[in-house]
Design brief:
alpha/beta; Metallo-beta-lactamase, Chain A; seven-stranded mixed β-sheet; 14 strands; 25% helix
Length: 261
């Protein structure tokens, strides 16, 4: 019965053309920011923004779904400081009041990242096990470390990984984490059955391994990527792994913004 209900989600996907003034939509919004990630979680009057894409596109998504006149975002999470995750946040910080920012401090040279570290917004190192409560929804940090990044020097593997429980659905938000992080989470016995997977690294072949998918068993996989991107995302190998398991694939390239309740 529980798994059956996940199919109901597909009937409430809302296209990116809807605009409501003064209204409020609750849910998890995977924003179409081209080749990048941006996820808005909105419950009641509380918003959490995870990543911001590569440019100002994130502002259009926020303006579409946040209540008219609400210019405060309680929590921003930067999964890792690659341009297609951090750049758009600078536009957000200019336009919105932000309560605090969670991030995973890593030794990485980038002008934008170095500027980010000087911001007067409260910056907080995300710690595994830390929870953020949105009324009766719970978001938890399940990975935030340089333990994998320190071995392979692959910044994707410094991504903060989050799990969200919202209205009896479990979301696993992988940032750009690749197979090496998946293996670490498996070895630490952290993973469990979920319903919705925000697939790691834009549905690249470097993530969403066979072993990982066999454990988390998602019903829906979200692929966030831009049309004609130079990386060739999504990769056929990953899409095939999803299809072999009957996992419904939704992409920001095809759907625009994706709204799940």
């Amino acid at each position: 019965m529980f798994k059956k209900h996940i199919l109901d989600i597909l009937s409430i996907l809302i296209s990116f053309t809807v605009l409501v003034f003064g209204g409020q939509k609750e849910g998890v919004f995977f924003l179409d920011v081209g080749q990048g990630d941006a996820i808005l979680i909105q419950k009641g009057s509380t918003q959490v923004l995870i990543d911001g894409g590569e440019d100002s596109s994130v502002l259009y998504g926020l303006g579409e779904y946040m209540p008219f006149g609400d210019m405060e975002i309680e929590l921003v999470v930067l999964t890792h400081p690659h341009a297609d995750h951090i750049n758009g946040l600078l536009y957000v910080f200019e336009r919105y009041e932000v309560g605090e920012v969670w991030f995973n401090y890593v030794d990485y040279k980038s002008d934008i990242y170095e500027y980010f570290l000087t911001l007067e917004i409260p910056l907080k190192q995300a710690e595994e096990g830390t929870r953020y409560i949105l009324d009766d929804w719970v978001m938890e940090v399940i990975f935030s470390s340089d333990i994998v990044y320190g071995k392979d020097n692959n910044l994707n593997n410094a991504s903060i990984v989050l799990q969200l429980e919202a209205d009896n659905y479990k979301y696993l938000l992988m940032g750009d984490a690749e197979v090496e992080v998946e293996k670490f989470l498996i070895e630490e016995n952290i993973l469990e059955d979920i319903d919705i997977l925000k697939a790691g690294h834009h549905c690249s072949k470097t993530a969403s391994s066979e072993e990982f998918l066999n454990i988390v068993k998602p019903e829906i996989a979200i692929c966030s990527y831009g049309e004609g991107n130079k990386f060739g995302h999504p990769h056929k190998e990953t899409i095939d792994r999803f299809k072999e398991r009957g996992i419904k694939i939704l992409s920001t390239k095809e759907e625009g913004n994706i709204w799940l309740l």
